[in-house]
Amino acid sequence: MDKITALRSFAEVASTGSYTQAAEQLGISRVKVTRHIKELEDWLNVRLLHRTTRKVSLTAPGEELISQSERVLHEVAHLERIAHSHNEELIGEIRIASPIGLGQNLLYEALVPFTLQHPKVRVQLVMSDSNAQLVEEHIDVALRYTNQPDDSLIARKLMSIDSALCCSPEYIQKHGQIDALGQLKHHNCLVHVPQRSWTFIEQEQLRTIEVNGNIKANDVSVLINACIDGLGVAYLPCDLANPHIQSGKLVRLLRGTILPTMSLWAVYLSRSYQRPAVRAFIDHLAAQWQTDIKAP
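The line above is the sequence of LysR family transcriptional regulator; the predicted structure tokens follow.
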């Protein structure tokens, strides 16, 4: 029995709660995962998992073993990374889920040096402004804007990004300056689906403003273009808005009003180990994105 492989199967089943999903994550058959678990239980002479037709859960001995298994697998993964760094190039495929605007801009800019440095790594981007399902879509790492990462996933914070309320100079000329939050109800607000309201901070308290307009989209780049074309007001992440504010195409509104900062996280499913290429990619992003993005 390959004990390391068996521990990997055990850790994935414990993480996903499913033999089928664990097999998909590991790229092997469900039959192999089942055999690995059986061999591990026979070797340890203890039952590790409760199995029913609906779910899989850890037994009491399984709960004791899982943390030890994860430590062993982390050490093995660390040894693999050291070996790869000294002996051979990184290889394999990384499936990355990303918001559309991030993928088209900051992520692409970060990918260029990574792929040049590691030409044998194949990168596949899955871009959508809705959260990808990591297991079902076979995602190795997903990038998400959130201040509350899903506690069922492992998350690594990459940077913080401010937001800005923006419109074009032409929109101000036509519709007048916006000096207070209450005036937003009289303006055409370009809304990112599924949002129905915008959040601000006044006197250290969150204030939510219901907004509406004649353009809604699930792609922030559409809202930016509509904003630049003078069609309305938009609540935009500064990684996308700042270049247009600095060029004069957009104007930042209500500078005295605070908009909550959003954090960008790399999230992944496995609690046990990561392939060297995936770990190297996350480390690369963390190094590239050390500086938070502030509103100008």
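Note on the example: Residues 3-84 form a domain with the Arc Repressor Mutant, subunit A fold (CATH 1.10.10.10). The chain has three domains: 3-84, 92-159+263-289, 163-252.
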